[in-house]
From TrEMBL:
The lineage of its organism: Bacteria, Bacillati, Actinomycetota, Actinomycetes, Micrococcales. Pfam families: Peptidase_S9, Peptidase_S9_N. It comes from Tersicoccus phoenicis. Residues 515-717 form the Peptidase S9 prolyl oligopeptidase catalytic domain. Residues 1-16 have a biased composition (Low complexity). Coiled coil: none annotated. GO terms for cellular component: cytosol. Keywords: Hydrolase, Protease, Serine protease. GO terms for molecular function: oligopeptidase activity; serine-type endopeptidase activity. The keyword Hydrolase applies. Gene3D superfamilies: alpha/beta hydrolase, Prolyl oligopeptidase, N-terminal domain. InterPro entries: AB_hydrolase_fold, Pept_S9A_N, Peptidase_S9_cat, Peptidase_S9A, Prolyl_oligopep/macrocyclase. This is S9 family peptidase.
Length: 720
């Protein structure tokens, strides 16, 4: 990297290698996100990075990925509200997208007839703002009335801050004089046709240190936001306040949640006719997740829960009648009990059943339980081997279709299918209907000759860690195969098999000069949720390095098995996964030939002061606490660069509009590596998209550009 790239930074002196003193941060000036000097630096880096790519290959790959994203035969994901199925759709003609709906009869056709509600491209052109659709919430009407009013969220730049406007789906227009909240990290919930609960920025003190709403207000139509009474508030150092209204017929209630951090919260309930502030606390430990559905409470503890002398293991799902529990009764029904190989990934209620989505050694299972029979039940047919099956209710309140469910099945080499079935049982008096295929995603790459394998490796502390390997059936184990290793390892997020036309085209079916295709690997490391909350907590805070040791163990196993070698092994990760691969760069550089690091955390000394970073203290620790900084520094890539190290080629990319992690950490890491040019870090590349938020993309073309950028960089480095 040329000396001019960091020339606008003030000079400072680093402490000597091995010195306990913290290095001076010579790149604080890059924390001015929209400053002229910072943006000029980023623009210079972008030009250099684009110039370094094989332009023809890069352009070709970008168009191949864009064709996948824009393909009109993809499955349109839908949400049922009343008689209609709502969808948000982007394609070549509508890059910003269409919010639309159709009927069930039409949806089943090969080419459904869609009623367009909102054309975001037209809105963006009319307003002169590059709006990004961020979702909509429809008001459940009173019985006999049509679904009509919605609250539409629009981001001005793809970030988390959104403008909220009231919309009439019958008139297909925004409501004149309707609810209209300025762009902020806002939460809204309908109370009735003229009232909403709002959590948003309303002057000083209204947002938490984590940049989320600290208060919840009741806003009446025509009322100024500053005049809306505050019904709920939380301490400033908690993550956020949530105030919501449940309009389920027969179970109407207000819900207030004090979200302390990502893993702890306190839930409160109030009847709509109760006095303001008359909240009833659901009295469980803060780290027990609480879910309310009609007459039921569900509990899932993050750690072992001593409940009246009985241990409820972490990851268990337990149930209790809501009214009885609030009245002081404490009997629980264990709905699901985990074991060392099986974890609960999520649940969904139909009218008469509870659906559980499970993983056993990262293989999907779906259980259907009957609450009226003590939550006994049966297992749906297994998903295909090494695939993911996920079941969820279609619309639990529909009088005729309340027990219908979606079943989505996807695999690394199997295009996604959307199926629909109906659950039977004593409550409905029928046997139901098995799931049948409604839609199938097109195949975007040739899978003949490819196979999926699952392997297990022993990590540094003897923990057994699984990973998926996708590549040729006749793979030659001579270490010369271009291999891409991907992972995440945080926030109890699981990495499961899923079809990706972009990965298929950009890696699995791409060929080297000698005819080899790429090998793609997903590592199911600790910090994720593949084995439940214990798997996640095993890599929290001081134990964070366990996740990185797991990932390095997978990389070493790929080398030991002859799949690849350092010069042919690349790794990629985004967000928390960016921190993961940042640690591969600084601690295990000898394992990788190239690293792609997207929208990352990297400066763990200042991450709590940047964008929404304060909200992740429960995951990583508090660097302002000297005892915690002592262990955080061990996995802070920005502080662990060592002059003279043989670092692999590195791409770091981000987005100016990312208001979650922010562009600052990526900028500073690239700049510090560039300054070390003469000491061995002369192959670092940086790219910053202007919009797109934490996804670094606001439309399909931008998404294709970023995917192609990462893949082309890695391919050039490890495929030769």
């Amino acid at each position: 990297m040329s000396d001019t790239q960091a020339s606008t930074a003030p000079s400072s002196t680093e402490s000597a290698p091995g010195d306990d003193a913290e290095p001076a941060d010579e790149f604080l000036w890059l924390e001015d996100i929209h400053g002229a000097a910072s943006l000029a630096w980023a623009e210079q880096q972008n030009a250099r990075t684009e110039a370094a790519l094989d332009a023809a290959a890069y352009d070709r790959l970008r168009e191949q990925i864009l064709a996948v994203l824009d393909d009109t035969a993809k499955i349109p994901d839908v949400t049922k509200r009343g008689p209609y199925y709502y969808n948000f759709w982007r394609d070549e003609t509508n890059p910003r997208g269409l919010w639309r709906r159709t009927t069930w009869a039409s949806y089943q056709q090969e080419r459904p007839e869609w009623e367009v509600l909102l054309d975001v491209d037209a809105l963006a052109a009319a307003d002169g703002t590059p709006w990004v659709f961020a979702g909509a919430s429809l008001l459940r009407p009173t019985p006999g009335e049509p679904w009509r009013r919605g609250l539409v969220k629009l981001s001005p730049d793809g970030g988390d801050a959104v403008r909220v406007r009231e919309f009439d789906v019958e008139e297909k227009s925004f409501v004149a004089g309707g609810f209209d909240l300025p762009a902020a990290k806002t939460q809204v919930s309908w109370v009735d046709a003229d009232t909403i609960f709002v959590g948003t920025e309303v002057g000083p003190g209204s947002m938490t240190t984590s940049s989320y709403p600290r208060t919840g207000r009741r806003l009446t139509r025509g009322q100024e936001l500053t005049e809306a009474p505050v019904l709920w508030e939380v301490p400033e150092d908690h993550l956020m306040a949530v105030l919501a209204h449940d309009r389920t017929p027969g179970f109407e209630r207000d819900i207030a949640v004090d979200v302390i951090d990502f893993f702890r919260s306190r839930t409160h309930v109030a009847d709509p006719d109760s006095e303001p502030g008359a909240w009833r606390h659901v009295d469980v430990p803060d780290d027990v997740n609480v879910d309310l559905h009609r007459q039921w409470l569900l509990f899932r503890p993050q750690t072992d829960w001593d409940h009246d002398g009985t241990t409820v293991p972490a990851g268990t799902l337990a149930a209790a009648p809501l009214d009885a529990f609030l009245a002081g009764q404490r009997e629980l029904i264990v709905v699901f009990a985990p074991d060392e190989r099986t974890s609960l990934q999520g649940w969904s209620w139909t009218a008469h059943h509870l659906i559980l989505n499970l993983l056993t050694d990262v293989a999907s299972r779906v259980l259907v339980l009957d609450p009226d029979a003590g939550f006994t039940g049966t297992e749906l047919p297994d998903a295909p081997a090494l695939s993911t099956a996920h079941a969820a209710a279609v619309d639990d309140e529909d009088p005729d279709e309340g027990d219908d469910y979606w079943l989505t099945v996807s695999g690394f080499l199997t295009p996604t299918t959307l199926q629909r079935g109906r659950l039977g049982g004593a409550a409905t008096g029928d046997d139901g209907e098995p799931a049948h295929t409604v839609k199938t995603s097109p195949s975007f790459f040739e899978t003949a000759g490819l196979q999926v394998e699952q392997h297990f490796v022993t990590s540094a502390d003897s923990t057994r860690v699984p990973y998926f390997q996708i590549g040729p059936k006749d793979l030659v184990l001579d270490g010369a195969n271009p291999t891409l290793l991907n992972g995440y390892g945080g926030f109890e997020i699981s990495r499961t098999p899923a079809y990706s036309g972009a990965i298929g085209r950009s890696w699995l079916t791409r060929r080297t000069a000698d005819g080899r295709s790429g090998v793609y690997v997903i590592a199911n490391i600790r910090g994720g949720g593949e084995y439940g909350p214990g798997w996640h907590r095993a890599a929290l805070q001081a134990n964070r390095p366990r996740a990185y040791e797991d990932f390095a163990a997978v990389a070493q196993d790929l080398i030991d098995r002859g799949v690849t070698t350092r010069e042919h092994l690349g790794c990629s990760g985004g967000s928390n996964g960016g921190l993961l691969v940042g640690n591969m760069l600084t601690t295990w550089p000898h394992l990788f030939g190239a690293i792609s690091c997207g929208v990352p955390l990297l400066d763990m000394r200042r991450y709590t002061k940047l964008s929404a970073g304060y909200s992740w203290i429960a995951e990583y620790g508090d660097p302002d606490d000297p005892e915690q900084w002592a262990f955080i520094r061990t996995f802070s890539p920005y502080h662990n660069l060592v002059p003279g190290t043989d670092y692999p080629a590195t791409l770091i990319y981000t987005a100016t509009s990312d208001d979650r992690v922010g562009p600052v950490q990526a900028r500073k890491m690239a700049a510090r590596m560039a300054r070390m040019e003469a000491m061995g870090a002369d192959d670092v590349w940086f790219y910053e998209a202007l919009e797109g938020g934490h996804a670094a993309a606001s439309d399909n073309r931008q998404a294709a550009q970023m995917a192609a950028l990462s893949s082309q960089f890695l391919w050039q480095q490890v495929a030769g």
